[in-house]
Design goal:
Subcellular location: Mitochondrion inner membrane
InterPro entries: NADH_UbQ_OxRdtase_ESSS_su (IPR019329)
Family: Belongs to the complex I NDUFB11 subunit family.
Strand content: under 5%
Shape: flat
Helix content: 55-70%
Keywords: Electron transport, Membrane, Mitochondrion, Mitochondrion inner membrane, Respiratory chain, Transit peptide, Transmembrane, Transmembrane helix, Transport
Number of helices: 5
Number of strands: 0
Organism: Drosophila grimshawi (Hawaiian fruit fly)
Structural class: mainly alpha
């Protein structure tokens, strides 16, 4: 319990020292900063122009942001993006998952389970034990002697 108390007090002390160092860093940073109060050129408010259907049909190329596949033309960038996502999502994820789910049993799990049930049925019909008591040859098992065990309690 005392170890838990010491650990907790050390953690609290560490948190306090981190908070103090952060406050000192913040105080140093704010004392070095200066505020610029010069007026900006584009501070005037302008009413937005009316939007027509032509604006939607022909968007301005200056507002185009590349997806990272082609930095020169917007059309090639969009084509590359769509084809990449089609192959990645549709072919790899969807069809890959479908293929993996319906693969044959490569590790023979269902075969082993079937064989186990057949062996259990055969042993029941023959009147044998389900598992042989001499599954491991008793002559190969090495047990400690009574002197080695001493007063050790043996629970069976």
């Amino acid at each position: 319990m005392s170890a838990l108390f010491r650990l907790t007090s050390r953690a609290v002390a560490l948190q306090r020292s981190v908070a103090i160092s952060q406050a000192a860093t913040l105080q140093r940073a704010t004392s070095c900063r200066s505020i610029k109060t010069s007026p900006k050129k584009d501070e005037t408010v302008a009413a937005p122009a009316s939007v027509t259907t032509e604006d939607f049909a022909n968007p301005s190329p200056k507002n185009w942001m590349s997806y990272g596949f082609d930095y020169k033309t917007e059309a090639d960038d969009r084509k590359a993006t769509k084809s990449t996502f089609f192959f990645a999502v549709t072919l790899c994820l969807v069809w890959g998952t479908f293929y993996w789910a319906y693969l044959p049993d490569t590790q023979l799990r269902s075969w082993a389970q079937r064989e186990g049930f057949l062996e259990l049925r055969r042993r029941e019909q023959a009147g044998l034990d389900l598992i042989s008591p001499n599954y491991v040859d008793p002559s190969k098992i090495v047990l400690p002697s009574d002197e080695d065990l001493g007063n050790t309690e043996i629970i069976i």
